[in-house]
Write a structure and sequence with these properties.
405 residues, mainly alpha, Hypothetical protein af1432, 2 domains, 17 helices, 0% strand, HD_domain
């Protein structure tokens, strides 16, 4: 993929016509005076970083449960890596870096303890009440559950940041209102009745680079963590021609490199190749579309920031490798089963006696809820837990807690 280096925005401070302009933001649900020192998207990013939800990511699983070791990625370190890549892509494409970074920083707020295991468990438990979706839960957190400000619940983020949070992976519904991947989660539908996020269109290019940065980050760091754990070996990476080529390149240049440095040299090359691939494809798509505004990006019928067909094939092969060698490894599956049991037990206990959720704000203030509303509040409580808190809460209520090591 050829990159037009003359069109890159490194260090220029220039914003392209198709970038999202913070000075013409569609605003916030609750109007606020502008800041004298920060743009609207800088304010959004800062609000995100100062939340309880952001701090909790430190003790939430990415792939490996925290007792496995201090050097594995958590949701927080993953989020920081995504934000770094998103900001680099935004700068190269002359976008608003603060918006791209903000969407990256908030994109995993709704994840449960124990990674995707927790989300799957909660989704199954909440099927009678509309299911559970981490993206919808992220929206619920930033519009309702964070309770920090005197004049409103949530963070009162701009329309553009909320749009990016909800639609960074693409439109959620067709132009006639049907859900593209099934029914629209209730929290998203409810919010859009107040503040229409235009679910049938693509999000800004800033949100799109945040989404592809998520793929780049976890494809790379899950390999790194897999090698550290011993579930992956360098020989296994040979199954992916792209990775085999990177290893051959590193071996040719550094024939006697120690394994830890060897792994890092592979990872840094992987990120570089993927980032450059996205830049090249985005430039090609922008050249064809010739957008004159951020609205033109939203109105396009395809994503702009994506992988080339060859890199998309590599992406699929890497995911296949990770699923077969790590995510479905017997040791990981045993831990997943234990984590799911912890959340299932806690859900049933809290549904039977909501007063057990001692710190949850609603317990003494909203009596007489029906089962659906109660289940949603229990899900809020469980989704907000860190891994360590969930294990401790289970140990306080039950005689035996599954071993997650």
């Amino acid at each position: 993929m050829t990159i037009d280096t003359g069109a890159l925005g490194f260090g220029s401070g220039e914003r392209a016509l198709y970038a999202t302009n913070p000075w013409t933001s569609r605003g916030r649900l609750f109007p606020e005076a502008n800041s004298l020192t920060r743009s609207e998207f800088q304010r959004d990013r800062d609000r995100i970083v100062h939340t309880t939800a952001f701090r909790r990511l430190k003790h939430k699983t990415q792939v490996f449960i925290s007792p496995d070791g201090d050097h594995y990625r958590t949701r927080l370190t993953h989020t920081i890596e995504v934000a770094q890549i998103a900001r680099s892509l935004a700068r190269a494409l002359k976008l608003d870096e603060d918006l791209a970074e903000g969407v990256a920083l908030v994109h995993d707020f709704g994840h449960t303890p124990f990674g995707h295991t927790g989300e799957d468990a909660l989704d199954e438990l909440l099927q009678p009440y509309g299911g559970f979706d981490h993206n919808a839960q992220s929206l619920r957190i930033v519009t309702k559950l964070e309770r920090r400000y005197a004049e409103f619940d949530g963070l009162n983020l701009t329309w553009e940041s909320l749009e990016g949070l909800v639609k960074h992976n693409g439109p959620l519904q067709t132009t006639t209102g049907e859900g593209i991947k099934g029914p629209i989660p209730r929290p998203i539908r409810d919010y859009c009745e107040l503040h229409d996020l235009e679910l049938a269109s693509f999000a800004s290019l800033e949100a799109q680079v945040a989404a592809i940065s998520d793929d780049i980050a976890y494809n790379t760091h899950d390999i790194d963590d897999g090698l550290r754990s011993g579930l992956l070996t360098f020989e296994m990476l040979e199954d992916v021609p792209f990775l085999a080529g990177l290893m051959a390149e590193v071996r040719a240049r550094y024939p006697d490199l120690e394994p830890s440095r060897f792994a890092h040299e592979i990872m840094r090359r992987q990120i570089t190749h993927m980032v450059e691939d996205v830049i090249g494809i985005a430039q090609d798509n922008l050249q064809k579309l010739q957008p004159q505004s951020a609205a033109d990006i939203r109105a396009a019928d395809h994503v702009i920031a994506t992988f080339s067909s060859e890199m998309a094939k590599t992406d699929r092969l890497i995911k296949k490798l990770l699923f077969s060698r790590i995510y479905r490894h017997p040791d990981i599956m045993r831990i997943r089963a234990g984590a799911a049991q912890i959340l299932s037990d806690l859900f049933q206990a809290y549904m039977n006696d909501p007063s057990l959720m001692r710190s949850h704000y609603w317990v003494n203030h909203i009596p007489g809820l029906d089962d659906g509303a109660k289940a949603r509040h229990v899900a809020d409580y469980l989704a907000g837990m860190t891994d360590t808190y969930a294990v401790r809460a289970h140990g306080e209520l039950f005689d035996h807690t599954p071993d997650l090591r």
